[in-house]
């Protein structure tokens, strides 16, 4: 499967997970993200899609590392920052919940694991470690 086929980046105009997001986090944050995405030009959406794909490709290179490793933890912080910069404010609790979705919701697992078998679990575990560290006053 080519990178283009994996997510086609992501389809910003039709989000298959919107109903789940509304159920978990409410209408307001979902509406805010939809407005932000709707106001992007096609070029901006392609840029965002390319960054999204690059992030997952980076995680795929780390798949054999421990979720505690500095490289994986740096990548998770970058993912947290990327989500906050592009998709609204993610609290630590919301980010933790997203990490749980990666392994509890088979749609997420399937999409993420296209980049490498077990990647969804690695990311979920790394998110849990990252959040625990941050809540204890970590500076990573």
From TrEMBL:
InterPro entries: TipA-like_antibiotic-bd, TipAS_dom. It comes from the Bacteria. Residues 17-130 form the TipAS antibiotic-recognition domain. This is HTH-type transcriptional activator mta. The gene is mta_1.
């Amino acid at each position: 499967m080519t990178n283009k086929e994996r997510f086609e980046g992501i389809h910003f105009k039709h989000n298959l997970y919107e109903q789940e997001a509304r159920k978990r986090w409410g209408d307001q944050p979902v509406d805010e993200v939809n407005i932000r995405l709707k106001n992007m030009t096609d070029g901006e959406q392609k840029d965002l899609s390319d960054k999204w794909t690059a992030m997952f490709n980076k995680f795929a290179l780390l798949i054999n590392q421990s979720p505690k490793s500095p490289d994986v933890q740096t990548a998770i912080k970058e993912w947290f920052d990327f989500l906050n910069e592009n998709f609204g404010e993610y609290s630590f609790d919301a980010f933790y919940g997203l990490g749980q979705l990666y392994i509890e919701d088979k749609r997420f697992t399937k999409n993420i694991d296209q980049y490498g078998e077990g990647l969804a679990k690695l990311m979920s575990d790394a998110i849990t470690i990252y959040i625990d560290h941050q809540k204890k006053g970590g500076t990573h």
